[in-house]
Amino acid sequence: MLTKIEHIGIAVSNLEEANKTYETLLGVAPYKAEDVESEGVTTSFFKVGDSKIELLGATHEDSAIAKFIAKRGEGIHHIAYAVEDIEKEMKRLKNEGFKLLNETPKKGADNKLIAFLHPKSSNGVLVELCQDIKK
Q1: Helix (H, G, I), strand (E, B) or coil at 22
Q2: Are strands 32-36 and 127-132 parallel, antiparallel or unpaired?
Q3: Confidence at residue 70, expressed as pLDDT on a 0 to 100 scale
Q4: What sign has the CA pseudo-torsion 84, 77, 135, 91?
Q5: Alpha-carbon span 75 to 78, nearest angstrom
């Protein structure tokens, strides 16, 4: 079951400049920056109350984020939802007819296991499922 919106991911061309913009906009500095090699991105996370914003900058020109920006420009890339059991949720959603972009969860940013749903199966929105990695 999806328990809450975990974060909103925003694709940016220049992460350093976007960090400055969002620091000014939100009145806080990012609490975390992280490279996610499997996705070809560097991320910055901002907290706004109980909500989070993730800025995503490409680390190479053939990454999914670089391709997204080339095709659509900067902007909202995905909405991430928190789940308690990502494998169970992936199975449920697949059985409901949603198309998974990955068949098994993978390690993502911010100490999460992640999986994505194809935007064509969710009204044009890339959906990310996130489960906290238990320490």
Answers
A1: helix
A2: unpaired
A3: 96
A4: positive
A5: 9
Provide block-wise average pLDDT over 10 residues at a time, the chain (135 residues). 95 98 97 92 95 96 95 97 97 97 93 96 96 88
Burial class (CB in 10 A: 0-12, 13-18, 19+), 13: middle
Fold of 2-132: 2,3-Dihydroxybiphenyl 1,2-Dioxygenase; domain 1 (3.10.180)
> Would you state the torsion angle of the CA atoms of residues 80, 44, 40, 6, taken in this order, to the nearest 10 degrees?
-10
Answer whether 67's CB lies under 8 Å from 115's CB: no
**Cα 35 versus chain centre, distance:** 13
Length of the chain: 135
What are the Cα distances from residue 19, in Å, to 37, 125, 132, 135?
A: 20, 24, 25, 29
Which pLDDT score, from 0 to 100, does residue 134 have?
84
Q: Supply the pTM of this predicted model.
A: 0.93
Backbone angles phi, psi at 66, to 5 degrees: -60, -40
